[in-house]
């Protein structure tokens, strides 16, 4: 949703934490979603208790996997450049 880095980044965090359905595309959807969330005390309680763990256990916080992916990409870039010499 959105064409800015911040909106894509926010969607990525929410999606990887397992709550991508909280992401919205318009200001009107944001207001509607905020009102709905404010009225759902059970969901708010679950999020309050579990959000940190949901985020920490997400794909984004897996440091080893992230470093391997970055290293792989560096190797691909290096290999492509070496083939062009």
Structure description:
- The chain has 85 residues and is an all-alpha fold.
- The protein is 73% helix and 0% strand.
- It contains four helices and no strands.
- The mean pLDDT is 90.
**How does the overall form come out from the CA principal axes?**
elongated
Task: Report the average pLDDT across residues.
Answer: 90
Radius of gyration: 18 Å
Total number of strands: 0
Oligomer: single chain
* Number of distinct helices: 4
Low-confidence stretches: none
Q: Structural class given helices, strands, pairing?
A: mainly alpha
Beta-strand percentage range: under 5%
The major β-sheet equals: none
The end-to-end span amounts to 40 Å
Fraction of residues in H or I helices:
over 70%
Order of helices and strands: HHHH
Keywords:
single chain; 85 residues; mainly alpha; 4 helices; elongated
Task: Describe the secondary-structure layout.
Blueprint: H1 5-16, H2 27-39, H3 41-56, H4 63-83
